[in-house]
Amino acid sequence: MTSSLEVDRVTxxxxxxAPVLRDVSVAAQAGRMxxxxxxxxxxxxxxxxAMAGVLRPVSGAVAVDGKPLRDRDDAVSRRVVxxxxxxxxxxxLTAGExxxxxxxxxxxxxxxxxxxxxxxxxxxGLSAQAGQLVEELSGxxxxxxxxxxxxxxxxxxxxxxxxxxxxxAANRARVLxxxxxxxxxxxxxxxATHDLEAAAxxxxxxxxxxxxxxxxxx
Length: 218
Ligand SMILES: Nc1ncnc2c1ncn2[C@@H]1O[C@H](COP(=O)(O)OP(=O)(O)OP(=O)(O)O)[C@@H](O)[C@H]1O
Fold this sequence. Notes:
This protein has 218 residues and is of the alpha/beta class. It is built from 7 helices and 10 strands.
């Protein structure tokens, strides 16, 4: 089944009366990649967190398949996957454990979780690091572990926040190919990025500036 993600006139505030996003609307469609660009502090992470159901807008709504998201639990049950900017990995677990634990928590049997973990780490080129503690991995290897974890969940919506920032050119190209493969299997992919080449690899681009959004490429 394919899904669509609609952001309808969303305003988000961290402090009452000081919106970080103002009246932002955009739709992300199944099978396509949407880039969210803009300078540091423009609100890219805030928008992805609202899309993920982590932040509740003060007005407007985020909907998947026309049904508004209630909160993060609702978003998880509707297969909205967020790969966060800070990776969100448990540093005292291995790369493999980080992926596997999340899969089991999402209903995979231990055997399926083991298989999907091995496949996903292989896709990002980390098979040899599966048993290594996250705190022993480089920044780019940690970033790829978080990507492997997000990809393994096979979301209907995949929200990737600055997932190429620590990667060399070859790994960046590999990750963009993997995100494209997610879109090709029917996911809505949203990529927040500073990287102009990564943005150019997407089908559409939403540019944020001072909390307002403009669709610069549809
Ligand atoms: N938890 C928070 N509490 C208060 N203000 C916040 C919080 N998180 C972000 N902000 C503010 O919201 C604005 C947008 O931040 P956000 O992280 O969404 O920007 P960004 O475009 O992702 O930036 P970057 O490219 O540097 O990651 C910034 O002014 C930031 O200081």
